[in-house]
Design a protein that fits this description.
457 residues; alpha+beta; five-stranded antiparallel sheet; 14 helices; globular
């Protein structure tokens, strides 16, 4: 199965299969799907859809490890007086992600961290001084950047990192060649002067700087003593500050990047209706985009996600449930912009501020005469939650200089292409590994990220 087959995700599952899925009877689903496949009477598209679903349910249950009782116990370790009714209220209000497994709710593996990150009342009760301190450092860095950008109109950082993966012993297959793809910086609007300084092993191939999802590729037999793959690189991240004035927007705008891209960037009836409701009678494309940004940053709750591969339509998931993480919010922004006739596209990699390194996704949108602009809905939403209104406004049009961009398009192949289906068939921030056509899962390796140096130029 390859990325080409993902288009079949837009096909609904048979009702009996869906009944079992939402009850959480995954063994029953496998038996029923196998029975349907063996009958040999299925249309090709439905057959492909069922094969994808078998892959989805192979990874879905493990992402919801906490029963209600286990989730409650986890919280009560930090908040002894926390009541079961409170967890039930969080569940019913959509503030924790859960799924039925054998008819009983199970909570997502990062639900507790998500509550700390997004629910101030909850975080205050936990009284975690280290978490509070880390949040204060993060907020101060972002607020300081806004002030510096507005004053100086630009910033440039030289960022020197070492990244990679280390295979876990349980995933080692002796005498088999492991193929490894590690994301590296790609040339784009804000990234330049990229230099690959060293690698722990000799790479087989390094994708060109303009690759849409850029990686460095290794092939190596692994063992307990030979299981680490790293790359060290340096690049410059330059951003300019842009004042956006609606009256300066040109009447004629381009039409590129306004198309649908299945299975996720789709103008479904609900997406069209939502877009029309948000935009209303507005005709200025900049103000249209701002209305979309405001809706997402104020109405869509930030929520850690299960694997994107397990969601049939990411955009409609966000629009219906009004929740999602950085990539989900970015895709919703992109799709609503395109639906409104505003060019929009993907960008992702890592957030690389002096205090942290982590996966991150955001969006770009095009407004003439300004050209490509940025919209970081999750950072904007975080600012809005913390009443940092100046920062909330900043992340519509502008971005900070603490980024490593590896991906400039959504749902693109690697160079060289991975043979089997990826852990994340749409994006690449951690890396991907496979033996032949047997892809490894994220739990089979640990991610290496190390700051060497970050300095302002």
């Amino acid at each position: 199965m390859t990325e080409d087959t993902l288009k079949f995700l837009s096909i609904p599952l048979p009702e009996d299969v869906m009944k079992l899925k939402y009850f959480g009877d995954f063994d029953g689903m496998r038996r029923l799907i196998d029975q349907l496949l063996q009958a040999g009477k299925l249309p090709v598209a439905l057959r492909e859809r069922l094969l994808i679903e078998k892959q989805i349910i192979a990874v879905l249950p493990a992402q919801y490890p906490y029963s209600f009782e286990a989730a409650l116990a986890l919280i009560q370790e930090k908040i002894p007086d926390f009541k079961s009714d409170e967890l039930l209220a969080l569940q019913n209000n959509g503030l924790v992600d859960w799924f039925f497994i054998q008819g009983k709710p199970h909570f997502q593996d990062r639900f507790y961290l998500n509550l700390l990150k997004t629910n101030k009342a909850f975080a205050d009760r936990v009284n975690d001084s280290e978490f509070v301190k880390s949040q204060q450092i993060a907020q101060a860095c972002l607020d300081d950047n806004v002030q510096i950008m507005k004053k100086n109109r630009e910033r440039t950082f030289r960022i020197h990192l070492k990244t990679g993966i280390e295979l876990k012993d349980s995933a080692i297959r002796k005498n088999e060649v492991l193929a490894v793809h590690i994301p590296i910086p790609a040339k784009c609007k804000q990234i330049s002067n990229i230099r690959i300084l060293s690698t722990l092993k000799e790479p087989k191939y390094t994708a060109p700087e303009d690759a849409l999802q850029r990686t460095i590729y290794f092939e190596e037999k692994v063992s307990e003593q030979n299981k680490t793959f790293t790359v060290e690189y340096v690049y410059d991240n330059h951003v300019d500050y842009v004042d956006l004035l609606p009256e300066k927007v040109w009447q004629k705008q381009p039409a590129f990047y306004t198309h649908e891209e299945g299975p996720h960037i789709m103008f479904t009836p609900y997406v069209r209706s939502l877009c029309a409701e948000i935009v209303g009678a507005e005709t200025n494309p900049l103000l249209k985009a701002r209305k979309i940004y405001d809706f997402i940053t104020t109405k869509v709750h930030y929520s850690f996600m299960r694997s994107y591969f397990t969601v049939e339509n990411i955009v409609e998931y966000a629009a219906l449930n009004l929740k999602g993480d950085c990539g989900v919010q970015a895709l919703l922004f992109i799709t609503l912009c395109r639906c409104a006739g505003i060019p929009a596209k993907w960008q992702s990699g890592m957030y690389t501020a002096p205090y942290t390194i982590g996966n991150h996704d955001w969006a770009q949108f095009y407004i003439a005469p300004y050209g490509w602009l940025f919209a970081d809905c999750s950072f904007g939403g975080g600012a809005y939650r913390n009443n940092a209104i100046e920062r909330w406004n900043y992340y519509f049009g502008n971005i900070d200089p603490f980024r490593m961009v590896a991906n400039s398009e959504f749902q693109q192949c690697f160079e060289p292409n991975k043979h089997g289906l990826r852990i994340d068939p749409y994006d690449n921030q951690r890396g991907e590994c496979e033996y032949g056509e047997r892809g490894l899962r994220s739990e089979d390796f640990t991610v290496i990220r190390e700051y060497i140096e970050i300095k302002e130029l």
